[in-house]
Design goal:
195 residues; 2 domains; elongated; mainly alpha
């Protein structure tokens, strides 16, 4: 089983998957273009892919932990690293002294407390009732459309009021002119009034 965990096997597995997929794609292209050897390429590529998928199904998935970032040296399958709780951590004990390990632990505790607070906030958000939100949004939309309609009506009413004011000013000027003409006519008709 150690061969399945080795970097060489992982490289070989990825190489076979890539080559098989490339052969299938090129075979499909040849088939679409009616070029020679299209059927053979498709058959070879699909057989390689079928073998790979069968093999991957039999060996099972790998865990996706990246502990080597926290503990350097773990990315090698046969490394000799003892757990920190075992007392002597081998190369880790030389690389990290007690203060650094304690500092790392306190940093991790702080991060865990921050995550706990964030999860509490998410839980509070989950408990909020959003069942009437659709109705409220619909009511707000209706309100805004009526408000826009009222503002348009108000704008047209303002234009009408301005026209009315302009017409009243013109009427006042005309009445003033008519009063002057009427006064002159009365003065001309009644000569005794002038004297």
């Amino acid at each position: 089983m150690s061969f399945l965990k080795s970097k060489g096997f992982k490289y070989l597995k990825n190489l076979l998957i890539g080559v098989g997929a490339a052969i299938v794609l090129v075979g499909a292209l040849f088939k679409l273009e009616s070029l020679p050897f299209a059927s053979e390429m498709l058959t070879a590529g699909l057989l390689i892919e079928a073998f790979i998928f069968l093999f991957l199904g039999l060996i099972g998935p790998e865990k996706d932990y990246y502990w080597e970032k926290l503990y350097p040296g773990l990315d090698t399958y046969n490394s000799n690293i003892a757990p920190l709780s075992a007392g002597d951590a081998g190369p880790m004990a030389k690389a990290l002294d007690g203060e650094k390990v304690e500092g790392h632990l306190s940093n991790m505790v702080g991060e865990l407390q921050t995550m706990s607070g964030s999860l509490s906030s998410l839980k509070a958000l989950q408990e909020v009732d959003f069942s009437n939100t659709k109705d409220q949004l619909s009511s707000m939309n209706n309100f805004y459309s009526q408000l826009n309609s009222a503002m348009e009506t108000l704008a047209s009413t303002t234009d009408d009021a301005k026209k009315y004011k302009d017409n009243m000013e013109a009427l006042n000027q005309n009445l003033g002119s008519l009063n002057g003409v009427y006064g002159n006519m009365l003065s001309a008709m009644n000569p005794n009034r002038n004297a």
